[in-house]
Amino acid sequence: MDFTLDGVDKKARAGTLKLAHGKVATPIFMPVGTQASVKSLDALDLQDHLKAPIILGNTYHLYLRPGANLIQKLGGLHKFTKFQGNFLTDSGGFQAFSLKHNTKAHTEGIVFKSHIDGSTHLFTPSKVLDIQYALNSDICMVLDDLVGLPAPFMRLKLAVQKTTEWAKISLDHHKGHASRTNHIFAIVQGGIDSNLRRQSALELSALGFDGYAIGGLAVGESAQEMYATVAYTQEFLPKDKPRYLMGVGTPQDILEAIDLGVDMFDCVMPTRNARNGTLFTSLGKLSIKAQAHKESQEALDQNCACYTCKHYSKAYLHHLFKARELLYFRLASLHNLHFYLELVRGAREAILRGEYADYKSRILSVY
């Protein structure tokens, strides 16, 4: 994998990731497209309006429906969805955690029952990668053992051991894979225990993956515990490889993590909040359902250049939300994702100028 650092401001990093479907300037936020679709948006929205260079898909869900073999037959995720940017797909480890009533441990991986039809499936490190190869993901996450917090020390220790074992199997399997356009990231585990995080980071770093994710956070710990864990873990990850904090988060979480050296993020927050009526603006969060917007001819954000703000008023969006019109979901999601993508683009520019501390302080004064 080709990853270069273009600038550093203390620990904050601005880099360029070269993948098969285009360059990705970091820090970057990846819109979440669980079912190979960012909810309410199409490929043209993502490419033309948002200029998103990479989005996230979900291995577990796409394996069950419509099936990895079908997607492969139809040309992989890029031809299937018409999105010509890059795809990162997660391994299914998070689904084993979030759908734990349908999963159980197995010596070779994770056994789960489909939430669709109750059928039983076994995810092994090799199978998870084979699914992602069929999807033709640009970045494939290897299978990990994710534990919710708080958790007993011995359970966290076991998770680190299993994650390292599965990472070794994944790397050996990947070396025999013909395509060189599918890159693999390992996932560091260990809860908020510093010794376990150090162990996991060092063991995985020694194996030589294309990139490294920090997983097992934003699953029950406090924000300060998360920041402290990220800060500590980063010290044991390779400086020349991209770093990805999974499933995070709020604008504050993202800015704090960039300050600690994180390059990549994903979260459902911007689109989920949009659908529920909460919109991010340069002046803070806005509830479009509030009656104060019923007759407003103003844009959501006077400082925003997104498609929605350039064309529609608060009054119209308020009406769409109240009427439960489907168009609302598209326009609100476009706005919130534009906010998040501009947040990280602004962070990158500030890093390159050596002014990241001022940029972060200015945004956090609102958020």
From TrEMBL:
The keyword Metal-binding applies. Its EC number is 2.4.2.29. Keywords: Glycosyltransferase, Metal-binding, Queuosine biosynthesis, Transferase, tRNA processing, Zinc. Binds 1 zinc ion per subunit. GO terms for cellular component: cytosol. GO terms for molecular function: metal ion binding; tRNA-guanosine(34) queuine transglycosylase activity. This is Queuine tRNA-ribosyltransferase.
